């Protein structure tokens, strides 16, 4: 299985002035970094973390899937998403932060069952609220 977490670089850096989104985005990245560190425990081949900036075409770096919606009669690309590809080439895309956090924390829970090391990630109150 391959995974790619795409997040807005500006949200991660706190440049949009939305403290809630910054905290959640940073927690998603912390979870993904932890999973990448212990990925072999749960059979993940690779995990990419991509920082998307305005003007990027969806930020696809590793996995060729892009989430879009229509708003105000225009196509809007999702800058935050988790893309997963299984061994058969099936793609799953999670564009909602709540779903992304659930998938990432479930992977961390699976890793915790496979090792005696502490693999937990301390989540912000904002992220914990979504779970």
UniProtKB/TrEMBL annotation:
The superkingdom of the source organism is Archaea
Any idea what this protein is called?
Uncharacterized protein
Q: Which organism is it from?
A: Halorubrum salipaludis
């Amino acid at each position: 299985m391959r995974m790619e977490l795409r997040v807005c670089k500006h949200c991660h850096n706190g440049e949009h002035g939305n403290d809630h989104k910054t905290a959640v985005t940073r927690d998603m990245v912390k979870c993904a970094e932890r999973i990448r560190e212990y990925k072999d425990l749960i059979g993940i081949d690779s995990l990419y973390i991509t920082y998307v900036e305005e003007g990027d075409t969806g930020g696809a770096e590793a996995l060729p899937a892009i989430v879009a919606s229509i708003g105000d009669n225009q196509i809007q690309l999702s800058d935050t998403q988790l893309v997963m590809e299984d061994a058969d080439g099936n793609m799953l895309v999670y564009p909602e932060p709540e779903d992304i956090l659930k998938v990432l924390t479930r992977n961390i829970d699976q890793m915790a069952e496979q090792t005696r090391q502490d693999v937990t990630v301390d989540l912000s109150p904002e992220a914990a609220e979504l779970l």
